[in-house]
Design brief:
This protein is mainly alpha-helical. Helix content is 74%, strand content 4%. It has helices at residues 2-22, 26-29, 32-48, 52-75, and strands spanning 83-84, 87-88. A two-stranded antiparallel sheet has the order 1-2. α1 (2-22) runs parallel beside α4 and α3 runs antiparallel to α4 (52-75). The longest helix has 24 residues, at 52-75.
Length: 89
């Protein structure tokens, strides 16, 4: 049981390091399907794991991923005015 707890804790810590290391590039370097799976798994671990530290680390990883996603959404380019023949419309 202790070995499984340590493995899960190490995996969650690895995700934290990965998210922090890649920063905003996380969304471009890791396939969306894998990010979604990581998000679902981290939510599950945070909700049901018996180890307090592992639950805390899962919460931290989720928070880091949320910050990355919100940061990318807020800095994404919004379309400006349409320019036709030198005039803005």
């Amino acid at each position: 049981m202790l070995i499984n707890t340590l493995k899960l804790s190490a995996c969650v810590a690895l995700l934290i390091s990965l998210f922090r290391g890649l920063g905003s590039r996380t969304l471009y370097e890791i396939h969306g399907r894998l990010l979604k799976r990581a998000y679902i798994t981290l939510n599950y671990v945070e909700s049901v794991d018996k180890d307090d530290l592992t639950r805390y680390h899962a919460r931290v990883a989720l928070s880091d991923l949320d910050v990355i996603i919100k940061g990318e959404l807020s800095t994404s380019k919004t379309p400006g005015p349409v320019v036709l023949s030198g005039r803005q419309e």
